[in-house]
Known about the structure:
The complex is a heterodimer of chains A (272) and B (338). Chain A is an all-alpha fold and 272 residues long.
Amino acid sequence: MRKYVKIYLPFTLNALKRQMAYKGAFYLFILVSLFSSFISYYLWKAIYTSSDQATLGGLTQEEMVVYVFMVYVTSSIVMSSISNYVSEDVVKGTVAMNLIKPIDYRMSLIAMAAGNMIYRFLVPSVAIWIGLEIYKVTALGLRPVTAVEVLLYLLSSIMSFLIYVLFDFCFGMVAFFTTYIFGMMLAEEALLGFLTGQLIPISFFPSAVQRVFDFLPFSSMVYTPIMIYLGKYTGRTAGFMLFRQAAWVVILYVAGGLIWKRVTKRLVVLGG
Amino acid sequence: MIEVKHISKDFVTPKKYPGLKGAVKGLFSNEKIVKTAVDDISFEIQKGEIVGYIGSNGAGKSTTIKMMTGILSPTRGECLVDGIDPNKRRKENAQNIGVVFGQRTQLWWDLPLSESFTVLKEIYNVSDSTYAERMEFLNRVLEMQDFFDRPVRTLSLGQRMRADLGAALLHNPKVLYLDEPTIGLDLIVKDNIREAIKEINERYQTTVVLTTHDIGDIEELCNRIIVIDEGKKIYDGSLAALKETYGTKRRVSMEIRQPEKVAKLHLASLLNVREEECSVNYEKESNTLSVTFDKHKIQVPQLLTAVMSVMDIKDVQIQETELSQIVKEIYSHGIMEG
Lengths: 272, 338
């Protein structure tokens, strides 16, 4: 274990340092994604005021505000893409440079994604999170979050991160067959926005659809940690949800390993 | 150290048709083309050898190297590097080898060079004391200290190549693969790199496999060369033997006193050989007569006596066929089939 940390920690630190080297791009990213959070905030506000029910999909208007901004906080931590690294490595042929080293390609990618995650967590997310918490208690009049909820939320978010990167690795493997996956990455993002509950809480879907979602890993990526944070999953439900997340981590880990084995068999390194 | 046994690699690509019509047709057809990049190649390389692996562009050099490093899996056959099959036990093999691909870099593009070395130190599990000792050695032979703290993207090609070579050697690999290590470098940097490779080979008995298009690299470094063409091995042996076997042409240039007598010189009949075995060429401006012949058929004194029997000679120059000439002929399929 210590050896693993020693080998892959530099990848994490390098990703961190790289983020700092390209600050402009990063702040632009924060601004743009925060902008879309405000759009959905005003959308939901309009929906709630024109509706005669106080709760929609099990959430009050106040809870929905928290939901919208927690989507921002959570997905900017969790969704640290690695398929773009894979696609770059395949297009430029640099995947060869990774294969000549005694390291596991997937682990090095995950370590890099972890670096990005830490940076995003420290720089914008924590500040926005704290701001949201203050706003929630003072302006919205909701109860403050408990320490247990925060801990469970963080635990669940880390699992969400693992589920996302392991899934994204499997997705990135497509690049080895098609070479170019930019278009597919856009499709992936759009689809995930829908399936993970980023755009609409999953409780808004018809119950039959929700049943199907139960058997897919996507709701575990964003929806689960936010529900824990909102106090909608407590006690045994929360335990079950965390267990389900852990199961997805194992399944996607094994699946990714198998796919990688097949990919290296028919790998073609481009250029030179 | 390296055993390559009947290794082959096929690349399968979908068939493409020309033009817009072809592009549309390509959407619906499912035809595949199989191209054999490496075709049944075998060789063995001993510890401490420096082997030049040469061939024209697209001959299959890089593909072979990629199979030996474990990046590509061979379609047929196998290879063993220090007893390990790089394809089955890639990570173990990676610990034993160092690789430099001249066209790309293994360094972290956005970070200072020093960071790349720190990462490599951890990846290859190099201890602090070994690291210090190695860095001292590498800095001496590759002179990296001037740009050690600069981001890799700001390095010049020569600096980057030296840094890459250093990075490949940090963990003291048993085998060093160099894929065109001197491509695009100026003469002085080329010389430095060659010197460094030589010194590393002597000091650590590192086995070096080198592909290159630079004849200078081969002449200065390699004691053995393997030539491949269209995926097949066509020569494997020492450099001297290659020259001995294929470099049999010799050229003698003579500055002469009586240019008017050139027409009277019938060298072939004087030497008792066939016309095509000694070609004569006279250049009016410099007043030189040059004769190209097979050195096993005609001796130089014999030739000079024959010429001098007709005219006087002011000056003589003898040229052996250069390696570049031999290689050029091999590439254009001249020698091997003849």
